[in-house]
Write a structure and sequence with these properties.
Elements (H helix, E strand, L loop, with lengths): L4 E5 L7 H9 L2 H4 L3 E6 L1 H10 L9 E3 L15 H20 L4 E4 L4 H6 L7 H9 L5 E6 L2 E7 L7 H4 L2 H19 L6 E4 L14 H13 L4 E5 L1 H6 L8 E6 H12 L4 E5 L5 E4 L16 H20 L5
Parallel strand pairs: 1-2, 1-4, 2-3, 4-11, 6-9, 7-8, 7-9
Antiparallel strand pairs: 5-6, 5-10, 10-11
Length: 322
């Protein structure tokens, strides 16, 4: 099986994205695993590389030019920075769809900056879905054996309950199960499902969504491979997640607060259901330490390695003559 190829985007150029991307791609252990390319503006990346003491970019570059007159201003939110980060993502998607690379890993972007640049999407996931024409996708957080998907992602909390429908939960369960099989090589995945309400509704006393929506969706899609719905607080406090291959949470913070508590420096965001492989670190732009060379790169490294693992898994499934 050939070496996987991966594109790594620079993220928001005023944040730590270029720094953590460069730190990872300069590591011999990463270079030994894959053929990597950077996607972004050369001048911006060379500035970050100079700050890190690198004489040159560690891997080849696919140039995506910054707006005329743009200069890196560490720690600042700007429309030009947001625009460059999004154009770099779009170019990496093109490389994936054309088959020039097998996967992409995206360094952190600023939701505020991309909004100033005129993009309506609240983040990477929704933008990637639009670029690839995908409507059925699932944001999944990964840290070794801990995998957490969310039914509702980037939306106001007041809108969550109305989005928890039997169809929505069933689609997410199917997408998560299929991804565990295809992307992580788990033949019969065991999936734990969290309730929406405190104490998972407490038998209907604190809400009926568990009885009327979540349990039927589990039975219809997973059968004996679905477990729950569990009260979210006790589930993570008692480390019950260790008994399952993945967890499906009902909303963003229900899944991501415990995930980041357990794996903030190592976690990876994986978008299941896309026609391409995409990962990112689970932290943000860290504007407060941008340009100082002190950003920890473990999560970015793990994002690259998870993308490569999934790429190898998919390459292994391809016919020998493809």
């Amino acid at each position: 099986m050939r070496r996987p190829r991966i594109a790594v985007t620079l993220g928001d150029p005023n944040g730590i994205g270029p720094e953590v991307a460069l730190k990872c791609l300069a590591e011999p252990s990463v270079q030994a695993q894959c053929d990597a390319v950077l996607v972004g503006d050369r001048a911006v990346l060379e500035l970050h590389a100079h700050r890190l003491g690198l004489d040159a970019l560690p891997v080849p570059l696919h140039q995506v030019a910054a707006d005329e007159g743009y200069a890196v201003r560490f720690g600042e939110v700007s429309a030009q920075a947001g625009a460059l980060s999004m154009r770099s993502i779009a170019r990496a998607v093109e490389l994936c769809l054309s088959g020039e690379v097998d996967a992409m890993a995206t360094a952190p972007i600023s939701k505020e900056a991309i909004g100033l640049a005129g993009y309506d999407e609240p983040g990477h996931t929704e933008y990637l879905a639009r670029l690839t024409g995908t409507s059925d996708y699932l944001m999944t957080m990964v840290a070794g054996p801990l995998r957490v998907g969310v039914v509702t992602g980037h939306m106001p909390l007041k809108d969550v309950a109305s989005r928890i429908t039997r169809v929505a939960v069933a689609r997410c369960l199917v997408r998560l199960s299929e991804s565990l099989q295809r992307d992580f090589g788990i033949a019969e995945p065991r999936i734990a499902v969290l309730g929406l309400n405190p104490h998972a509704g407490d038998g209907g006393v604190l809400g009926s969504e568990e009885i009327e929506i979540i349990e039927p969706a589990m039975r219809e899609t997973l059968g004996s491979q679905g477990f729950g719905p569990f009260p979210a607080d006790g589930f993570f406090a008692e480390r019950q997640w260790e008994e399952y291959d993945a967890v499906l949470a009902m909303y963003h913070d229900q899944g991501l607060i415990p995930f980041k508590t357990l794996a903030f420096d190592t976690g990876v965001n994986f978008t299941a259901g896309l026609p391409i492989i995409r990962t990112s670190p689970d932290h943000g732009t860290a504007f407060g330490i941008a340009g100082k060379g002190i950003a920890r790169a473990e999560s970015m490294r793990n994002a690259i390695e998870v993308a490569l693992d999934v790429a190898r898994q998919r390459l292994a499934l391809e016919p020998a003559d493809s």
